[in-house]
From TrEMBL:
Sequence similarity: Belongs to the DSD1 family.
Disordered: region residues: 1-20
Pfam families documented for this protein: Ala_racemase_N (PF01168), D-ser_dehydrat (PF14031)
SUPFAM superfamilies: PLP-binding barrel
Source organism of the structure: Roseicella aquatilis
MF-aspect GO terms: D-serine ammonia-lyase activity
Any GO BP: D-serine catabolic process
Name this protein carries in UniProt: DSD1 family PLP-dependent enzyme
Amino acid sequence: MTDADRFAGGAGRSRPPGLPALLSSDRLGALPTPSLILDEARMLRNIDRLRARLAPHGVVLRPHLKTAKSVEVARRVLADGTGPATVSTLKEAEVFAAAGVRDILYAVGIAPQKLDRVLALRAAGCDLSVILDSREQAEAVAAAARRADDPIPVLIEIDSDGHRGGLRPEDPALIGIGRLLYAGGAALRGVVTHAGESYGVAGEAAHAAFAERERAAAVAAAEALRAAGLPCPVVSVGSTPTAHAARDLTGVTEVRAGVYVFFDLVMAGIGVCSTDDIALSVLATVIGHQRERGWILVDAGWMALSRDRGTANQAVDQGYGLACDVEGRVIGDLILAAANQEHGILALRPGSTGLLPDLPVGTRLRILPNHACATAAQFDGYAVLRADGAAPLAQWSRFGGW
């Protein structure tokens, strides 16, 4: 079996005619709580949505695998089993390369101490590229490339919105770094940017504006490099909000996005998806009540859902997560209002006019996460509700580390 065969295909997207669907409660009944639940049908729908959205633009989709950290998920996300893919840790690069992914972008500014691992991955047959935004990094990469006689591919990080790292397109250092890499033994592959500030605005129009800022900054940087006689074959942009809203990708060669595979309450809160699109949830059990306080206690606290409060500054604060019944249907305004290490406190959202539901001890619930990356990181595997509704529950492993 080839690497592409290993990754292609994956799960069936419909069940054979005549087979009845199994209720989620039937399939989840034997699981311990808390458990991380993945709804494969929702995940596949999310994957198909972005592929279809970008297809008319003629750009390559380079999915980010940092949330998934799972070979089984990667099989379904990557259109071609060998890549292209994006990662945020070298551990991710090592695991996915061992599983057959051959085109990987390590999208965190390179630390010189990590270059031996980069070179080892490349020597094993993975076309791993790195990013940087300083002369010091460029000198380290060029020196390592010369020592190994391996022209490490580099993308220069561009700041398109003041979110984090990167150079402004007009910064003279851009050309200096490009020349250092080009003449120093590395391979100048292109430019890369990420509109992280798009997470702070809501609505397609606002995300489209950030998408244009991404595009304009990356293309301007690429044009500056080319005008200086330097190569810039790759112009890489992307975030989940901008990937779904971009209207013009002229000059862009590839788009990156990651959390779109699962979505979460932060993405729902800024209008990129609905709660019905969120493919990850945490299975929990009701373990008690404080009725005079309007509390329902569950056995999933911040060790299961993380301390991420990403919706706190949005129009709707979802606490630590939004409660659903075991079939995945949202229960009114019931949120995880507070979280201790292993205890979660469900309560009605402040201002709600609803009634606290009657949920006896032993009732199983599913809680949608604020931030899919942070919640998934608390678990070493997914309990998968297969897209084929007649299939039994599957277990897919995930990994952590750096």
